[in-house]
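Supplementary Methods, section 5.1.

A reviewer requested that the exact input to the structure prediction be made available. We therefore reproduce it here, unchanged from the version used in the analyses.
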Amino acid sequence: MTDADVRVYFPRVADHIDGSMRRRPGSLRNNPCLSPPQRQDAHVPVLDPDLLHVRIVHSGRSSLWPWWRLRGASNPGWVIYANDRDGARISVGNRAYPLRAGRVLVIPPETRYDSATAPDVHQVYYHVELLGLPAAATGALLSAPLDLGADPVLAAQAERLHALLPDQRRPAPPAKDQPPASMPLLALAFVHQVFARLLDCSPRASRIAWADRLRAHGPLANALRHIDDHLAETHYVAALAARCAMGPHWFTTRFRTVIGQTPAQYIIDRRIVAAALRLSYGDDAIDDIARDCGFTDRSHFSRLFTRRRGIAPAAYRARERRSHGR
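The structure derived from this sequence is encoded token-by-token as follows.
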């Protein structure tokens, strides 16, 4: 499936018990997703769907046995798992998170985990970027893996994806068995529903923090989207400011206040994330990745990547492939 970049619709979120802030993440007994929703709190703002984009960067369906015994796997973006039966789990530190049939497990960015599985388990997976939000904002919504509970809409969507997607660990299916042309839209509908459910399950304070963060990003949205859509280009502050109808000085001041970085620092970080995703899931030459992500050459890319990630690009690719069983 090709990468998809669309605007996200978030329905009105439902309020839950404020005490869910104190619940242990990943605990099924204390999971706020397993509690019936209450009425929308008038003091919790509704997220503006025009301020946030979702991009699917890697997806598919795979049988897990026997290869899905990952050690130290991680992803720069969000990870969504939906299994067709019980028997698999991930572990973060000494805490285990079972992947239950008919449910969805969401893993926040940069979470390093191990995994294990029983035979005859299949998994639909999506690796997703939320464009326009720095890592600090995603941490406000979720800091540890979360089972989204029994949601009939998600369960039906996941069941359909399992039925339509071929097993990537088996020979390619004949043309008549290929996924339908509507598959990209079905995938996006599923991912949107996952994040809508995640917001419903989130404590009130987290939803307020997210809405406030997105509202603060609003005046910068055109510049943030332009940067993500044109990473290989040279970006000038004056041009980015003009996209937001601001002067260069005010734009730079507001950008630093809201994003927590200068425009130049943010652009480098976005390029590093894009490169890390391609190193993890693609087979492109490192020189091509460096060029496509806006770096002067491989040497420039390697120097900045190593400074940000603490590991050289080639070593990072080898580590991530091992951790993902490739």
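The chain has a mean pLDDT of 82. These observations are discussed further in the main text.
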